[in-house]
Amino acid sequence: MAFIDEVEIEVASGGGGPGCVSFRRESHVPRGGPDGGDGGRGGHVIFRVSKDLNTLINFKHRRRYKAKNGAPGAPRNCSGPDGEDLIFEVPAGTIIKNSNGEVIKDLSLGDEFLFLEGGLGGKGNTFYKTSVHQTPQIAQRGIAGIETKIKLELKLIADVGIIGFPNVGKSTLISHISAARPKVANYPFTTLEPNLGVVKLSEAQSYVIADIPGIIEGAHQGVGLGLQFLKHIERTAAFLHIIDVCEDSGRDPVKDYEDILKELKKYDEQNAGSPFAPLIERPQLVVLNKIDSVTEQRLYQIESGFQKKKIEYMKISAVTGQNLKDLKYNAFELMLKGREAMNE
């Protein structure tokens, strides 16, 4: 399934059905009087969060949506049926914005939001009957629906976000600690969309982890996959910062760590005033990956570099599974710490 996280659409609620002009016509019932029923209400536009979705792909091939109109009223004081509601199922974390970019609603898991109300049905001529006006020949048309343009933007909801440069082993890690099965290969930008997985510790304890595509220098300005995916870590409570320690990578692990921090800081500066806590303030754990493919001497040098800067870290091999059990529990504790800080 393709990953779509931004769409612009036009939506409209249904118009109310017209009232009916009718008079009772029965034998042996002289002067039956008006019996025109009311028109039905137009359909509402409703957004409903579905836990089974993680993309906006359902909106990819269509841009205009309209709820059904209410049916006209009928004789014998029969009201017309209401128009069918238009119900959109969207992933948790979907934000509805107006055409000016202002947030209308931030949907979270379990939400149902009545976005546009359908127009009221028109009154039939029975409504207009009075003691001095016994045969009204008028009925209401019904109120038109509301039409507007909106933007839907998805920001994934995950407890823990996996960040780091391309090709450091993020996809391999998430495939080994959860049921997610992302594409894995040995070249940069293997991951072109976020992957979500559930890490299960026990029947009662689990958390959602997101593998965020590679962040590189200049990501806050849209370089690489840039802003397209940085927004998806806004809701995470904690980060696992994956560092490639393999000598063949030709990278400096400490510099990689510092470069990613710079991108998080710059992103925070660009999004000052956001309701979310700054990314740089979230709890994070540095994870030195690929220790199965490095000499003890190089690993010692790398560890010394992080120790000098008093940076907390742990060592793993996502390929062999070394220390992954400890990592899963450490990430859970880190997530709890982050959630506590976010709720203060």
Kindly describe this structure.
The chain is α/β, with parallel strands linked by helices and about 350 residues long. The chain contains five helices and 14 strands. The strands form three sheets. Strands 10-11-9-12-13-14 form a six-stranded mixed beta sheet, sandwiched between helices. Strand 10 and strand 11 (about 205-210) form a beta hairpin. Mean pLDDT is about 85; it is low at about 220-225.
Question: Gist?
Answer:
This protein is an alpha/beta fold.
Class computed from helices, strands and strand pairing: alpha/beta
SSE topology string: EEEEEEEEEHEEHEHEHEH
Put simply, the count of helices is 5
Taking pLDDT < 50 over at least 5 consecutive residues as the criterion, the unreliable ranges are 218-227
Q: For the report, how would you describe the main beta sheet?
A: 6 strands, mixed
Overall morphology? rod-shaped
Mean pLDDT: 85
Estimated radius of gyration: 29 Å
Detail the topology: elements first, then pairings.
Blueprint: E1 6-12, E2 45-50, E3 64-66, E4 86-91, E5 94-98, E6 103-106, E7 112-116, E8 147-154, E9 160-163, H1 170-177, E10 195-200, E11 206-211, H2 226-230, E12 238-244, H3 253-270, E13 284-289, H4 296-308, E14 313-315, H5 324-342
Parallel strand pairs: 1-3, 2-4, 9-11, 9-12, 12-13, 13-14
Antiparallel strand pairs: 1-8, 2-7, 5-6, 5-8, 10-11
